[in-house]
Structure formats: structure tokens, C-alpha cells
Amino acid sequence: MRNAFAETVFELACSDDKIAAIVADISPAGAMNEFRSRFPSRFVNTGVAEQIMIGMAAGMAMEGMKPFAYTIATFALYRPFEFIRDDICYQQLPVTVVGMGAGLGYPTLGATHQAIEDVSVALSIAGLSVLAPCDPYETRELTKICASGSLGPTYMRIGKAGEPELSEKGSESDVVVGRFRRIRRGKDIAIVGYGPSVKVCLEVADALRDQASLTASVYSAHTINPIQESFLEELFGIYDRIVCVEEMIQHGGLADVLRRWRDRADKPVEIIAYGLRKEFLHVYGSQADLAEAHGLTSRRISADLLVTLS
Amino acid sequence: MVVPNAEERGTDIRRCLRYREKILELSQSVGALHIAPAFSCLEMIDVVYNHVFDMSDESADRFILSKGHGAIALYTVLADLGVIAEDEYQDYCKPEGILGAHPDRGVPGIIASTGSLGHGLGLAVGVANAKKIMGLPGRVVVLVSDGELQEGSTWEGIMMAANLGLSNLTVLVDANDFGGMDRMSEHHRAFYPIDDKFSAFGWMVSVVDGHNHDSIKGQLIKTEPGKPSAIVCQTVKGRGVPYMENNPIWHYRSPNEEELAEALVALRGGSDA
Q1: Are residues A62 and B123, on separate chains, in Cβ contact within 8 Å?
Q2: pLDDT tens-digit readout, B8-52
Q3: Which of residues 42-71 of B touch A (CB under 8 A)?
Q4: What is the reported pLDDT for B58?
Q5: Which pairs from A225-234 meet CB under 8 Å and 24+ separation?
Q6: Cα angle B234-B236-B237, degrees, rounded to a multiple of 5
């Protein structure tokens, strides 16, 4: 996904001289390197200094530029939190903060590098759009939208490398901010995730089909904020049950957004949520190993759902 | 460089006396005004707007008040220039008005919302860098307090401004030697001298009397290719009102009626108006 992001930013920068990349000591591999050599003045590496990465991105936006501020998710969002809040959001400047390897994307590096509460933190700030593409395709589409400047202040969490494209035959192709993208169509239940958890959602849908003859729709919630009211009306009108799977702590994330909307709109829809434990686990291994330690695997979720739904 | 003649100097002094009187008068209608920190940076803001900046509608010059708690000094100068309407000025910190105790982007003449310290310099680096990238004219001046130089973020900005060679950027340091609590040269001794720290990062640096228009202006009109510039302005917190000078309680307090009368007498007696 980071390659899809970097390639897209580079392509857009070729035709739009207002686009800039401000990074904080992140390895400029692939297209980011090309961006740097082709547009040296529009590429700034602030070094290990995230507050100035955000502050100067905001200042550049004040003069009409559309900067992307990009580094590892924990350092992109947590270290300069107040700068994102005051410099970008309070002043409504079109800066896109891109957090790479969000969720459990750095499974051997410990909690310092694991942005397991990023969506909750980002959703707490007024006026910040929160995006979470699930695959390289959505990353490209959303990067284009961010580059237009129309979304205003934005936090986009992306993965690292090697994520598969998740679209199947029948998947919706349009990536529309404010709506979830339906990856698979079913009729019995909706399963919603974002980022790396969408792959888990598809596996859960497979298990429900094979083991309980239930067909599930699977949605990629690439936009967590803002979500269009009309889309939620549509979603809550179709399904009696919505399963929400997040590679993020179960506190202040998408499931809470959906529950709050359901309660306000008074919809008789059950929301069943899965996410990461709100704990620092001192566990190392693959991303799958850490997801297992958190209990966030398709095997565990489908086993639990089969009991809940029976 | 055009050195103002004696008559002009008098005009500068009279103008700043008028600004101080206006701020003291306004202090009677609101609870808290940050008078002392505004009085320490008043001449600096006055020079920026009344002597250095192009004030036409097409102006490309940009000013950021990083020490947002000096806002009333900025509003007073902007109101004098007609950028902020007088009735808005009188509605300072009132629900029907638009002016708060800290600058807010979108208010006429204000490009940056500040108040939390350590933000303005980073924003100014971004504005100056964008101008450099796009080949746009205009100066970027950011006014920081000496207290906010204790913020690490400020030093990230000082490092980057020098790395990027932003000669269109000038930092004015309001060196009044006081944070909210202490005289800093006593309690944060390792921090002094300030100018050496900027020099070490490759900035063009000067130290001036921050209440002397000629001195501030003399440095503010200088630039050096490839280098940002810092002007350490030595100032007195509460300048002009003896009982406020260097007294931390006037960081935030407003004078009562009797104190106001005493302040006005002191101000007028101390001027050549």
C-alpha cells in the first residue's frame, strides 16, 4: 500500500505543482525517491522531527499548497497530536497526514511502533477526515481525492507492503468518500472492516457460507469520518445484523460510530464488534501472530459468530 | 536604509503611547487582557506593520504572532490601520465579537491561530518554504516569546529553517526574560545567551533594544542570502507602567480604576508627547 500511495502522489505531483511531500525520516523507497529526485524543492525530509513535519505542512497549506505529511503511523499521529489538532484541524487546512503500518503493521517492533488506537485518537478531533483503505486500489483512489484538497484536514492510515487487491467479481468499483465499498454481496448479514481487517472479514464470510449457509455482504469502510447519513440509512435498512471487525482497539472506533448512529436513528439493528484488546502485549512475530494474540483472527471470529447467530 | 528623523521618532513614540493607552482603556471592560506581555512586544509589532510591511491589498508579506497571548497588541495595531474595525476591537472577548484573547485564522489580518506556544515558528517555516518553492514574493515575520523557545518544537523549526535556507523568514524574539512564573535568566540559566543558539544553527542573528523603533527596523530590513534571520529584542514585560514592569502577576491581571489612573499618568509622564 505504501508503494501505491507513493506512486500516486508522484503521478499527481507531475501535473499539480501544489502537491508536496513532507516526511520525517522514513525510507524514501520506490516512487517516493523518484518524487524526491524529480521535485527536490517539493520534497522535505524534516528528519526525526514530527512536530515541524506537521507545522510546516500547515504553513505550506496556508500559502495554497496541498502537502502530504508522511511517516510511520504512531509518529505521524501521536507525537505531533497537538500540531495536527491546532495547526491543521483548528485552522481547516488541506493537509493529509498519512500514517504507515497502522494497526499491527510493525509486529516485531513493540508497542512504540504499533498504532492500535489511531482511529480512536483521530476521530476525537473536530474536522478531521479519517480514511483507511483496505488495498492498493483503494489507496490510489483515496490518495487522488486527498490531493484534490477537497477533504480538508485528513488522516489516512495505510499498511506497508505486499497487501493483496481484495476486489472480487461483483465488487463495487467506485471509491466514494462517505460510503463504504461493497467488496462482496450477500443477503443475510453485513460484515464491515477497514484496512487489514477487510481480508479477515472476507474469510469470516467464507466460513459463514461454508459452515452455516449464510451469505454475507462484506464492506470496506475506507471512510470512517465523515460517513454520509444517506449511506447509513441504506446500510441499516438492508441488514438486521452488522458485524464490525477492526484492527484497532475496541474503544472509540468504527463500531462505536455505528452504534451511536443506530441509537440516535433508533434502528433495530444488532452490531457485533471485534477489535484489538486495549492492552500493550509484549508479543513479537508476524502480523498474524499478533492478531492471534489479540484474538482477532477469522477462525475465532467465525467460531464466535456461529454461536451468536445460531 | 532610511533612518527616521527626530520628528518621525516622536511620532513612533506617540503612536505606541496611544496604543498602550487604548489597551489599558479596553482592560476596564474585560477580565483578562495579557497587558504586560502585550506591552513588551508592542514596538516590535508596530515596526513590522507601520514601517516594514507592504499594507496594500496585494501584499505578500505575512506575520504570525506565535506568542498568541500578545494578541491585543496586534489587534491594536491592526485596528489603527483599519484592518480590524473599531467596533470589533471594542467587542474584544465579548460573545458578539470576533476577537479572542488569542489570534484566530480568518479574523481580518490574522493568518494563523496561535495560543499554544511553540507552534508559530513551524507554521512560518512552512509559509516561507511554500513562497520559496513557488517563487512568491513577500517576507514572513514570526514573533516568538523567549519562554516559547523552551518548546522543543521551536528548535525543530529553527533547525529546518536553516536547513532550507529560508532567507525570507525573520524571527523576532520578545526577550522579556519572564515566563508565567519566573525570571528565566535566573531559573533557566543554561538557556542564555539566546543569540548564540541561533548562530549555532546557522542563522543571521542580532540583538537589539526591543523598545527602540530604529534598532528593530535597522535589523528587520536586513536579509542575508541563504540564511533565515533572528532578531533578539531585549524588552521589558509590562513596559511603560512601572508597577507592571517585570511583575509576573500582570501577565494576566487587569488594573482596577485606581491602578488604571496611575498607569496612565506614568505612561504620559514618561513620553515626549
Answers
A1: yes
A2: 556 999 999 999 999 999 999 887 678 999 999 999 999 999 999
A3: 62
A4: 86
A5: A225/A122, A225/A123, A225/A128, A225/A129, A225/A130, A225/A257, A226/A129, A226/A177, A226/A178, A227/A178, A227/A179, A227/A180, A227/A257, A227/A261, A228/A178, A228/A179, A231/A178, A231/A179, A231/A180, A232/A258, A232/A261, A232/A265, A233/A265
A6: 125
Q: What is the DSSP letter of A183?
A: E
Among the listed residues B163, B169, B211, B7, the one whose alpha carbon sits nearest the alpha carbon of residue A59: B169
Shortest alpha-carbon distance between residue A144 and chain B (Å)? 21
Dist. CA B231–CA B213, nearest whole Å:
13
Check if A48 contacts B (Cβ < 8 Å). Answer: no
Instruction: Indicate the pTM of the whole model.
Output: 0.95
Torsion angle of the four alpha carbons B184, B189, B191, B196, in this order, in degrees rounded to the nearest 10:
120
Buried b (16+ CB within 10 A) or exposed e, A140-164: bbbbebbbebebbbbbbbbbbeebe
Grade residue B3 by pLDDT with cuts at 50, 70 and 90. Answer: very low
pLDDT of residue B8: 58
Query: A66 touching B, CB under 8 A?
Result: no
Residue of B nearest to A39 (CA): B133
Nearest CA in chain A to B137: A63
Per CB-CB distance under 8 Å, the chain A contacts of B166 are: none
Question: Tens of pLDDT along B174-230?
Answer: 999 988 888 889 988 888 999 999 999 999 999 999 999 999 999 999 999 999 999
Reference A120, options A288, A307, A278, A282; nearest CA is A278
Q: With an 8 Å Cβ cutoff, is A266 touching chain B? A: no
Q: Would you say A276 and A250 are in contact if contact means Cβ atoms under 8 Å apart?
A: yes
Q: What is the pLDDT of residue B272?
A: 40
A83 CB neighbours in chain B (<8 A) are 119, 122, 153
> What is the identity of the amino acid at A190?
A
Is the pLDDT reported for residue A94 higher than 70? yes
Name, in order, each residue with C-beta under 8 angstroms of A122's C-beta and a sequence gap of 6 or more: A77, A128, A130, A155, A157, A225
The torsion of the CA quartet B236, B240, B241, B242, rounded to 10 degrees, works out to 60
Reported as type and span, the H/E element at residue B206 is strand B204-209
Q: How many CB atoms lie within 10 A of CB B91?
A: 16
Question: Helix, strand or coil for residue B169?
Answer: strand
Question: Which of A42, A59, A65 minimises the CB distance to B125?
Answer: A59
The set of cell numbers assigned to A204 is: 469470516
A60·B159 Cβ contact <8 A: no
What number is the ipTM of this complex?
A: 0.95
Beta strand spans in A188-240 (E): 189-193, 216-220, 223-225
